[in-house]
Write a structure and sequence with these properties.
The relative contact order is 0.12. About 10% of the residues lie in helices and about 30% in strands. β1, α3 and β2 (about 105-110) form a beta-alpha-beta unit. It starts with a helix and ends in a 23-residue tail after the last strand. The strands form two sheets. It has a 20-stranded parallel β-sheet that branches. Strands 4-7-9-11-14-17-20-23-26-29-31-32 form a twelve-stranded mixed β-sheet. The protein has helices at about 5, 15-20, 90-100, 320, 405-420, 470-475, 480-485; strands spanning about 85, 105-110, 115, 120-125, 130, 150, 160-165, 170-175, 185, 190-200, 210-215, 220-225, 230, 235-240, 245-250, 250-255, 255-260, 265-270, 275, 280-285, 295-300, 300-305, 330-335, 335-340, 345, 350-355, 380-385, 385, 430, 450, 465, 490. It has a domain at about 1-50 and about 270-514.
Length: about 525
């Protein structure tokens, strides 16, 4: 259906968009940190038995080079007694008993087949490795001769699948099926490896599915490699409140957010495939968190066809993700020093790449004090990518909801009018135009977004839009669509202030990884 047909309602029903700029991020934690002064978002619901000193013994690492699976912290099993415990299907009770009394530096070997649990597998020890016979294939809820599947369909409500606090933890070659909350949650840990793991919920598009597939949080030195994540009601693959992470060669499909990097320093996101999610790959900071995310390289990823309707629970999911319009390839919010290169975007119905200020979700700067006033986005370099086309022509799949996803409603409204002025579809790069430091609006690119050397579809006229969200949104709510559209600014890919060389100093993160 053409966009103009979705919005043929009176302007009185279009939006309450200025209100969208003052929505406070909600928490998925019933008891947020008492002294934070603000409810915070994903990654804050720490288990009460989380180790208080876990993750603090990390050795120093050059901030320009991320950890890549070796031992970076001071804990090591070298020279210590090591043991291997082996289990087969039918021995779930014995396995649960053993994990409660594990000695450090123990490997748990799970034979091929199906394991059924009524509660989380909880690990609170250092140096633990959990290894199966293979992760199997998408849709496989029972183990085979070549796969190990851990099933949590009938587990206790609100329990995770694997729930881990421990340094030098590795999980590989298995699948976690139908976890009630997070499939694999690792918290407050140093040296974490997730390799060849599949997390999945049986049914697609259910807001009652668990929120996160792979979920390392409040940790250091994390590697997620060759994994798959399907049907999570928030993010399939998440790294949050973490320092030094490599997310490499994974597949995320049918989630609300495919891959999510949140309040994280020094992350390398390489060679992943994010398709058929609501939004493919996101990088953002949230208010009330002391880690100010920075230095993120997103390279050689495929982020196409992310048009799944948003099925996140507004009450139980993070508010940021539940507000994302379907058809968003990548959004960057309250982030800095982010480089996107070698990636492919296309067929994302709302927009390929959006750069947003944190003030779009929390307009009170005081709520961002914990992270050093980290509401700004700045120094975003988008270069050497391929945009294949087919994006920006069906915002939020035409299923607009001004209360739940107000930015999508505004975007569709503006571009429905813009179509009458000869502009067809949202440009490949959208900037909300919220300049938190009040620079002179006559400056075209005050926060240094660089868009250069990208391959665009033939015939592309404009590739970048400055939405001027505050002014245009206000005019739109007043019914003045011509005035609102006039405030948006549209730029070609070359020969403008956005055609710049990036930021300085350049990232060195991941340069040694091929």
């Amino acid at each position: 259906m053409p966009r103009s047909q979705w919005i043929r309602a009176s302007c009185a029903t279009v939006l309450a968009l200025v209100g969208a700029l003052s929505m406070t991020a909600c928490s998925d934690d019933p008891d947020p940190t008492p002294d934070s002064g603000v409810k915070v978002d994903a990654g804050t619901d720490a288990g009460t038995d989380a180790g208080t000193d876990a993750g603090t013994d990390a050795g120093s690492v050059d901030t320009g080079i991320p950890w890549d699976g070796g031992s970076a912290g001071t804990f090591s099993c070298e020279g210590k007694a090591q043991a291997t415990l082996s289990f087969a299907p039918g021995q779930e009770e014995a396995l649960q008993d053993q994990v409660n009394t594990l000695a450090e530096c123990t490997t748990i070997q799970l034979a091929a087949g199906t394991y059924t649990f009524d509660n989380a597998i909880t690990v609170r020890q250092n140096g633990i490795t959990l290894v199966g016979a293979g992760k199997g294939v998408k849709g496989e809820g029972t183990g085979t001769a070549n796969s190990t599947v851990l099933v949590f369909t009938n587990a206790a409500a609100n329990s995770n699948g694997l729930d881990v606090v421990g340094n030098r933890f590795e999980v590989r070659d298995l699948a976690v099926w139908n976890a009630k909350k997070d499939a694999i949650r690792v918290e407050s840990s140093t040296d974490v490896v997730m390799r060849r793991v599949r997390t999945e919920w049986a049914e697609a598009d259910k807001e009652s599915n668990g929120k996160y597939g792979l979920y390392p949080v409040k940790s250091k030195y994390v590697l997620i490699e060759d994994c798959e994540a399907y049907n999570a009601a928030d993010a399939g693959i998440y790294v949050g409140q973490t320092e030094y992470a490599v997310v490499r060669n994974n597949v995320a499909r049918q989630n609300v957010a495919g891959i999510e990097i949140e309040n994280t320093k020094y992350a390398y996101v390489l060679g992943n495939t994010a398709k058929d999610n609501t939004t493919g790959l996101v990088v953002f900071d949230l208010p009330g968190n002391p880690i100010k995310g920075t230095d993120i390289r997103v390279k050689n990823n495929t982020i196409t066809g992310n048009n799944r309707n948003n099925f996140a629970s507004v009450a139980a999911s993070s508010s940021t993700v539940s507000q994302v319009p379907a058809g968003t390839g990548t959004f960057i919010l309250a982030s800095r020093r982010v480089e996107l290169t070698g990636n492919t975007w296309g067929d994302n119905n709302s927009v390929d790449v959006a750069v947003l200020s944190g003030l779009a979700i929390e307009s009170d700067p005081a709520q961002w004090v914990a992270g050093g006033m980290n509401f700004d986005s700045a120094d975003i370099s988008i270069h050497g990518n391929t945009f294949t086309g087919g994006s920006g022509d069906s915002v939020d799949n035409g299923k607009l909801n001004q209360q739940l996803r107000p930015l999508g409603a505004l975007l569709a409204t503006l571009y429905a009018y813009g179509e009458t002025q000869g502009t067809r579809g949202v440009e490949h790069l959208l900037w909300d135009g919220l300049d938190p430091f009040g620079h002179d609006r006559s400056r075209v690119n005050p926060i240094n977004i660089c868009f250069s050397g990208n391959t665009l579809p033939q015939g592309t006229a404009t590739a970048i839009v400055d939405l001027d969200l505050l002014t245009a949104g206000t005019l739109a709510t007043e019914g003045n669509l011509p005035g609102a559209w006039a405030k948006t600014r549209h730029y070609a890919a070359t020969g403008t202030a956005f055609d710049c060389a990036g930021f300085n100093p350049a990232l060195t993160i991941g340069d040694f990884i091929k």
